[in-house]
Specification:
The protein is α/β, with parallel strands linked by helices and 304 residues long. 45% of the residues lie in helices and 21% in strands. One of its GO terms (molecular function) is DNA-binding transcription factor activity.
Amino acid sequence: MEIKWIEDFIALAQYQSFSRAAEFRNVTQSGFSRRIQSLEQWVGAELIDRSSFPPVLTPAGQLFREAADDVLSKLYDTRAIIRTEQRIGGKSLQIAAGHTIALNFLPAWLKQLAKHVGEIPARVVPTNVHDSILMLVNGNCELMFAYHHPELPLHLDPARYEHVTVGLDTLLPASRPNARSAPAYRLPGTAKQPLPHIAYTETSYFGRCVALLLGRAATKPLLRLHYESDMAAVLKELVMQGEGVAWLPKSAIARELADGELVPAGPSAWHLDVELRVYRDASNRSEFIDTLWQHLRAVAQDSR
């Protein structure tokens, strides 16, 4: 039994909708349903009455929810205590960020920030989008960095969680070049030779971005799944080895594009622009965080 199954169950109990709960949990509806079924198999009873609309908890589900709320509350409280004890003392920052952001954006951003506000001890926790959100919501970080697309918003209450746009990035299809410096794998591919696709997992944020892009493409690409991972760094390494084509954030391959080690596998119609945002909990009234936030807002305003 996995904790995420319990979190899925509580989300379903709150939303009373498989589709809305799945969207909140950043997972496909089919994957979400499988996880609820796995939980029911572990418990040994049906927890959801699927014959009603909206779906409601069965008596077993109501009993299980009471225990689930209590267990998760104790786990989260204990985790918060442990993480607080592990924090850097004094004026410092605990930052949650996606792996790509932590690797390709934050080092230069922190260096630039130090020029304006002085040296700040910072701990960066690379994680996925869902866990980053949990860290922010549970008060386990002061700042959370995440990508944003208007059609794939994060489910955060804007009245409580403020954001500032700190950058822009582009997901673009990349390939190793051939001897003529053209892409070895060029979109859209052919029915006879579909392109080997190095893909993100469907539940990852970039996986959802690529699905959005391909779903509205005027010409459907002809791809065959070759490898799959939820980390852009893994996809990049496989592309560098000539294993196929992958949509990669431009920030992660800027040097390789400049040096000609990688080339775009198609024109800009295959690109997807995304914002890079930093979020904070507005209820955190730390003078240090307030001052830092004012600086970030001013920088964002000046860059417009």
